[in-house]
Amino acid sequence: MSYNPYASEQDKYQSNNPYANDDIEMNNYRGDIANQGDFFKQVQTLKDDLSDYNALINQLERLQSSALNAVGTEELNAIKAQIDSATENLRSIQALEIKPKLEQLFKSCGGDTDKEDQVENLRNQFRNAITRFQKVDDNYRESNQNKAIEQYQIVNPDATYSEAYQFVDSIGNQQVFDEAIQMANRKGEAIAVLDEVKARHQEVLRTVQLTAELNELLNDLQGLVFQQEELIDSSNQKLEKAQQQIERGDANVIKARDHAKKGRKWRWILFWVVVILICAIVGGVVGGVVGSRH
């Protein structure tokens, strides 16, 4: 290890440098600015995700409207495939993009009320979007249920609304389905209609499951709280740094005081040496004069 003859001088300069603390504060300030930039970037990314989410809900609503107006099982199934794709995209973006990013933002506010307000606003936007998603799907479920009941009554005109509702509700039972075909006057037409009724009932069941998922997601959002840990850690770190700086300052004061004491001591020693020398010289001169007289 090589010896640096300037190391002690550098340490002394740092301890006596009146701008050292300013440098530390400037570095902290730059770090805060960088963190601010990251925060706002995350906020903007989440806003973009919410925009995509709402656009997908609009697309889903249009597809559902087309499905309700579909004629025949083949057309209905083709539109259902698109509905399934849009629904999966919505599930993906809400579970893999929006929710985790929102959770991260809740953790990164650090007690900053302005940041918390922005994040709270984003949570409300997401909550409103989910509620709209639920409403769109609820309307689709109800319309599909009514459409299926109407179609069953076409095949069995004598069936009451209650009987038709009960049939649609239990359409998954193959025996019930077969019995309905046997009771129909025109079996070929009945098979086609009942196939469509079954397809619509499957859509009803799918939307029921989706509603439960969205309710769970809303509950998760309600449970999000702002965390103050980062603020506490940051405050502790700043206090620790301040304490270290104070301790270094105390050490420097002690060193300076010791140096001053030593300086004063040597000045007194030098003073008395000079006095003694003067006295010796004076004594020698006086002694010489007296001796010469004798």
Automatic annotation (TrEMBL):
It holds the Pfam family Syntaxin. This is t-SNARE coiled-coil homology domain-containing protein. Residues 43-139, 225-252 form a coiled coil. Residues 1-19 have a biased composition (Polar residues). Residues 1-23 are annotated as: Disordered. It comes from Pichia inconspicua. Keywords: Coiled coil, Membrane, Transmembrane, Transmembrane helix. The chain crosses the membrane at residues 269-290. Belongs to the syntaxin family. The keyword Coiled coil applies.
